[in-house]
Design brief:
The complex is a heterodimer of chains A (314) and B (248). Chain A has helices at residues 2-10, 12-37, 41-62, 67-91, 96-119, 142-161, 163-171, 173-178, 183-205, 210-222, 228-252, 258-276, 282-313. Chain A is mainly α and 314 residues long. In chain B, strands 6-7-8-3-9-10 form a six-stranded mixed sheet, with helices on both faces. Chain B has a four-stranded antiparallel sheet with strand order 2-1-4-5.
Chain lengths: 314, 248
């Protein structure tokens, strides 16, 4: 087992995949915290699905697979999608969850149409593009990982610099606006972060599953702490750990996909958090209740014994 | 005559084309405790939010100490409704209070020792010093309201807007809050409070604004708080109110 892990980690190809998956988990874990606390967990899913047509169009126009171009394409279609959601909630009687559902599926439908077009036409360098649905971590190469590193570093730097602003915005946007902070801008920035996390993750995990890495590590981290700073760091670690576990597991057994395994690892971490988290964990609470019940029973026994003694004395 | 702390002229606002505040015009002198009273849906919170620029207004002008409010944000403190945020947010009481100092800090700068100490003083003023490190979801409703008040104190403002600060708090907290408001007034600060309990209006406020989409009456509480004015503001609901009112 240990030997195997050492062998896997020593393999340069796997090293890239491992690094890529961990970076992806780290980024989406950190960004996911803020979107979860903004009550926009579904936004990650919507933007992930909305990214697909943008990426396809970026590829069709340029004929190259480049993370930066995909980021621009996904960003543009993400902006259109968020405007669409905003427009629907403002001018119809629909609530935002329904609006997100409509936008998500129509963008995804368009994306699939474009993807099929690409596959059946003469674009040369299209290998791997069809993998964007469910991802293929094995297709990651050194250059991809370098780009991911730069993007992740930028994203983490901005999150650190703007930690105070993001916290205030996530907790009480109205108060933030009262203080003069441009909340519309912060909102757009958070959307941009989500789009970046999605694009970073698409190659490895695919548009369908990438939202899981935004939500699950953040929700898991919430079970372990009551401090936002700790939560963000933990979510990043959980995300990175999920990526690492996914890579290692898929390298051990033939025909196991890395991305989905990373998502399942994140789910396993979530399960552990739900059970064992201090204060909020299900098991922890059960144990605490049992203890309280026992001490309360003992106290009542003491009490009634005391009264009986008094009665006997009188 | 005192300086004018707040002058609002012709302020209107709407939600989805339905007017909820129409042509509000009034001015508040420095050092006053002002109550805003009116039935549900009368636009009380809207008035505050439009004045602070939290929602877009259709028309009107808001001046704070003689200048447009956008230039005077540092002079304004705000206590939103307690239910407007999720109290399960991962943070503690002191951290929330420190948010009041963010306006002075500006972008990127983190609150330091000075801000922390000031926030502790503000918590102490609302009697919550012992709860500084407490996770905010573990506070009672009254304690959460006090934390919001402490955050507004940490803004170190001259003019305070408070949206229903007495809703869902116990009697002890209500007393603590009103004492704090009177202390602010003694320091020459101006406090504008959205209020719904008619039985305490005369006791709490120097001036009163009766609102039902439009301003129905505004002036000294003893002059404005009359049966006719309330009848006009509340319409048919007054029969219920008369039963509620202790003093006749």
């Amino acid at each position: 087992m240990i030997q195997h892990i050492v062998a896997v980690v020593a393999d340069p190809n796997t090293q890239w995949i491992l690094a890529g998956c961990m970076l992806l988990g780290l980024c989406s874990g950190v960004v996911g915290c803020f979107s979860y606390l903004r009550k926009q967990s579904l936004m990650g899913d919507t933007l992930a699905h909305a990214a697909l047509p943008g990426i396809c169009i970026a590829f069709m126009l340029t004929g190259t697979k480049s993370l930066l171009l995909f980021l621009i394409g996904a960003g543009i279609s993400g902006v259109i999608a968020t405007f669409g959601i905003g427009w629907i909630t403002r001018y119809s009687r629909l609530k935002s969850d329904a609006a997100m559902g409509i936008v998500l599926s129509s963008f995804f439908g368009l994306g699939i149409v474009l993807l099929t077009q690409i596959q059946h036409s003469s674009y040369g360098n299209q290998s791997g593009l069809d993998k964007f649905l469910f991802g293929q971590a094995a297709s990651m190469i050194g250059a991809d990982v370098y780009t991911m590193m730069i993007v992740c570093a930028l994203l983490l730097t901005v999150c650190t610099l703007l930690f105070k602003e993001l916290k205030l915005f996530a907790f009480d946007a109205g108060f933030a606006r009262g203080l003069g902070y441009p909340t519309a801008l912060l909102d757009q920035l958070l959307m941009l972060f989500i789009v970046i996390a999605v694009v970073v993750g698409i190659q490895a995990v695919g548009v369908v599953l990438v939202a899981a890495l935004l939500i699950t590590p953040a929700v898991s981290a919430r079970y372990w702490t009551d401090r936002l700073g700790v939560m963000v760091v933990l979510a990043g670690l959980f995300g990175a750990l999920s990526g690492a576990l996914g890579t290692l597991l898929s390298s051990m057994v033939q025909n196991l996909p890395t991305g989905p395994l990373s998502v399942l690892s994140a789910t396993a971490l979530f399960g552990i958090s739900v059970l064992c988290g201090p204060r909020r964990g299900v098991l922890t609470q059960a144990i605490r209740t049992a203890r309280l019940r026992r001490s309360e029973r003992a106290r009542l026994r003491e009490l009634s014994a005391g009264t009986m003694r008094k009665e006997a004395a009188s | 005559m005192n300086r004018m702390a707040l002058e609002i002229t012709g302020l209107s606002a709407a939600y989805q084309r339905k007017p909820v505040l129409s042509n509000a015009t009034f001015g508040v002198e420095e050092g006053q405790l002002v109550g805003i009273v009116g039935p549900n849906g009368a636009g009380k919170s809207t008035l505050i939010k439009a004045a602070l620029g939290l929602i877009p207004s259709l028309s009107g002008e808001v001046r704070v100490y003689g200048k447009p409010y956008k230039q005077q944000r540092r002079l304004i403190g705000y206590v939103p409704q307690r239910e407007s945020v999720d109290w399960d947010f991962p943070t503690h009481a002191l951290d929330v209070v420190m948010m009041g100092t963010y306006g002075r800090l500006g972008w990127f700068r983190r609150p330091g020792f000075k801000e922390k100490q000031f926030a502790m003083e503000c918590l102490a003023k609302v009697g919550m010093a012992d709860y500084a490190e407490r996770q905010i979801s573990q506070l009672s409703g009254g304690q959460q309201q006090r934390v919001f008040l402490a955050r507004a104190l940490a803004q170190d403002a001259q003019l305070y807007f408070m949206d229903e600060p007495f809703v869902g708090v116990d009697a002890a907290t209500e007393k603590a809050i009103i004492e704090l408001l009177q202390e602010l007034k003694r320091q020459g600060k101006t406090v504008i409070v959205v209020h719904h309990d008619l039985s305490t209006v005369e006791e709490y406020f120097d001036s009163l604004l009766l609102l039902n989409i439009e301003v129905q009456a505004f002036g000294r509480t003893e002059e404005v708080f009359t049966r006719d004015n309330l009848q006009q503001t509340y319409g048919g609901k007054l029969a219920f109110l008369e039963r509620e009112r202790v003093s006749g």
